[in-house]
Amino acid sequence: MISSCESKKKQANIPNRIEVPDIKLKLAFIRFEKVIFDPHTPFDSSQIHTLRLTYGKFFDLWCVRLAGIVPVGREPLSDAAIANNLNQYLSDKYIRLVYADCDKKFSDISKLKSSFTESFKRYHVLFPGKNIPKIVTYISPFTSNVMAMDSILGIGLHFYLGSDYKYYPSLQLPQYMVHKFREEYILTDALKGWMDSEYTNDSLHRSFLNNLVYQGKILYALDLLTPDTDDTIKIGFSEKQLTWAIQNESEIWGFFIEHQLLYNNNPKTYMKFINDGNGTSGFPKDAPAQLGAYIGWQIVRSFMHQHPEIKLPQLFSIQDAQLLLSQSSYRPAKNS
After folding, report:
1. Which is it for the CA torsion 119, 124, 127, 133, positive or negative?
2. Is pLDDT above 50 for 78?
3. Residue 146 region, left (φ>0) first, then alpha (ψ -120 to 50), else beta?
4. Cα–Cα nearest to 295, from 333, 245, 261, 329
């Protein structure tokens, strides 16, 4: 159905690079996993009380939903009960090994701190008045890789030990997910999670077009916040998959138009073009998943190119996806 050009097309409307603003920003970076795993003596109730005071809702969430120390529906437990459960959790040999591997791989996080600080300096300027979170690293084999709440952005280091990490096969996760369990995905995954928490996606039960545009806004924000990050990392494509999407952009868009998908309100019909996966049904095997997100990205890039006066908060405030599309002048060039 879709052919490829011999030469790779260049992506259009990529925004100009924003240099790191010359502002002071001391980004809090907390190694929560060290707080939990490094003590040489068992936790007691007084220590749990201190942890709850220090980390608030994050500690409770980590106990319940991330580490499973407190069974769902059983909270609140006493500090003494949580201490007992936490000590049992920390005595698990498997969990200790995962922690040791994380501690070894991320013993020096200076580069990670630097990249987060640069991105949040840009964020502070691009989203004036928005909260800057504390960055909190944790491990909880193996649940969430990113957790955003209130003023905390949590990063599960256990999901970034490399796609060949010895314990990942036991999780029986699809390869397209394991492929991204690499350190270079930490920054973009975290920023996506934070922006999702700040700009809740209310388009999930609306049209396919609304979903395209929402995904496009997030990816466009990454263009500005992480200009040194390759587009393959932002959207999670391989180089070959990104090349395929660039070469066949017009045909992808034509497919959505031909099948009258843009204004379809049934998520069961269109989410296969938004969600991650091994590929996309109805397209050749070389086609990646998330083709809808890719097209939304190009629509938003085109819109912002046409309207350089629009700032990021204004972009995210636009709820009329059809209006944004019509004012984007989006017309993907056909294959040569």
Report:
1. positive
2. yes
3. beta
4. 245
Give the residue-averaged pLDDT of 129-144. 92
> Are residue 128 and residue 234 in the same domain, yes or no?
no
The band of 147, judged by pLDDT with boundaries at 50, 70 and 90, is very high
Within a domain: residue 267? yes
Q: Is the model more confident about 1 or about 242?
A: 242
Q: Are residues 79 and 185 in the same domain?
A: yes
Residues 88 and 129 reside in one and the same domain: yes
Domain limits for position 113? 29-193
Tokens of 297: 């990205």
Looking at the structure, do residues 124 and 154 belong to the same domain, yes or no?
Answer: yes
Q: Contact at 8 Å (CB) between 206 and 161? A: no
In three-state secondary structure terms, 92 is coil
Give residue 257's Cα distance to chain centre.
Answer: 28
Do 257 and 170 have their domain in common? no
Report the domain count for the chain: 2
| Tens of pLDDT, residues 62-75 | 998 889 898 877 76
Question: Rounded distance, CA 9 to CA 12, Å?
Answer: 9
